[in-house]
Design goal:
The protein has about 200 residues and is of the alpha+beta class. It contains seven helices and seven strands. It has helices at about 5-25, 30-40, 55-70, 70-90, 100-105, 120-130, 190-200, and strands at about 95-100, 115-120, 135-145, 150-160, 160-170, 180, 190. The protein has a seven-stranded mixed β-sheet with strand order 6-3-4-5-2-1-7.
Length: about 200
């Protein structure tokens, strides 16, 4: 590839990463693939072969939030982590872990809380919510445990005004690597003790 062509491609890659980060910060998009496609379309670069990686967009997102949403975003993260910890204590019997933007610190104004639960009796989670008078909706999402794809039940709850997603995995999967896509990075997660420490450190 000619040097100037490669340079233009790198510049467009950086512009797409910045635009995708802005969409995620301002519009509440949480899907990296959707954000980068939308950003590329806005910049007239839908056919580009050099879309930015998720970690490039995440770096731009952190920079954008720090520059334009500093105090508001820090307070939002703290608030969402507190709500997450309360839900984790309530669901402690199902071995809850916090994951997603609330854990990574990139959650914005419209972010959901993502919890992973580990149990060999998924229906027990639903029975517990019903007995606690907590309404929920159920959907299936494609997840990867190791290299194996399967449908994972996700219970969607309105938790004190915040959308809460409960992804239900088996006990065996707690010891493995979970990914959102086959080629994606392992999903980071934190248990009750780790989330408590995060809150204490930020408090």
């Amino acid at each position: 590839m000619p040097k100037d062509s490669k340079s233009k491609q790198q510049q467009m890659r950086a512009r797409i990463a910045a635009a995708a980060a802005r969409l995620m910060a301002e519009d509440g998009l949480e899907d990296f693939a959707l954000a980068k496609r939308k950003a590329a379309r806005q910049l007239g670069a839908e056919d580009t072969q050099s879309l930015p990686r998720n970690d490039e967009i995440e770096a731009e997102l952190r920079a954008y939030q720090s520059l334009y949403q500093g105090k508001e975003q820090r307070e939002r993260i703290q608030y969402l982590r507190q709500r997450a910890l309360e839900a984790m204590h309530l669901l402690e019997r199902f071995r809850p872990y916090l994951a997603g933007p609330v854990l990574s610190g990139t959650a914005g104004r419209y972010s959901d809380i993502d919890l992973q639960l580990f149990t060999d009796d998924g229906k027990a989670v639903e029975h517990f919510l019903l007995s606690s008078n907590i309404a929920y909706d159920v959907s299936d999402e494609r997840r990867f445990a190791g290299d194996q794809a399967r449908a994972v039940s996700v219970l969607k709850v309105d938790w004190q005004g915040v959308p809460l997603n409960l992804a239900i995995y088996t006990l065996k999967e707690e010891r493995g690597t979970l990914k959102a896509t086959w080629a994606g990075r392992p999903i980071e997660r934190a248990g009750i003790q780790a989330v408590t420490q995060l809150l204490s450190a930020a408090g």
